[in-house]
Amino acid sequence: MLKIAFIAHDRKKDEMVNFITAYEHVFTDHQLYSTGTTGQRIMEQTKLQIHRFMSGPLGGDQQIGAMVAQNDMDLIIFLRDPLMAQPHEPDISALLRLCDVQGIPLATNVATAEILVKALDRGDFAWRELVHKYKPGLDQQGDVK
């Protein structure tokens, strides 16, 4: 079971909902997270249960970033709107940087998201389970020492 986060800027929320609806079967067995409104919209259109953080501008990006910083997130789909300035751009940049630091797969458009979700469906993310298994402070079964 992997931890997956969904984030979408306002003009990308419909696209996110459509994408998640199309691949709902892939996400069913994973722990799902999102920023506030994005998660609410997804849950209204699917049967998925999602842990919702605050909206992005109110700190939701940072809450997800905190999980990334702890290497406690496995995949992020962040549909960004490159044509609209975002008031919380520093938070967005920090999240992207943290994903690079921790080696967390991150899709910022539907084309890349589809490739990652198809890989997830094939089981290509098994290496992330090994990351969790051998985290400092955990035994080989992934339990706290």
TrEMBL record:
PROSITE patterns: METHYLGLYOXAL_SYNTH, MGS. It catalyses: dihydroxyacetone phosphate = methylglyoxal + phosphate. The active site is at residue 61. The keyword Lyase applies. Keywords: Lyase. Substrate binds at residues 9, 13, 35-38, 55-56, 88. GO terms for molecular function: methylglyoxal synthase activity. Residues 1-145 form the MGS-like domain. Its EC number is 4.2.3.3. It is an enzyme of class 4 (lyase). The keyword Protein biosynthesis does not apply. InterPro entries: Methylgl_synth (IPR004363), Methylglyoxal_synth_AS (IPR018148), MGS-like_dom (IPR011607), MGS-like_dom_sf (IPR036914). Pfam families: MGS. Catalyzes the formation of methylglyoxal from dihydroxyacetone phosphate. HAMAP family: Methylglyoxal_synth. Belongs to the methylglyoxal synthase family. This is Methylglyoxal synthase. It comes from Paenibacillus ottowii.
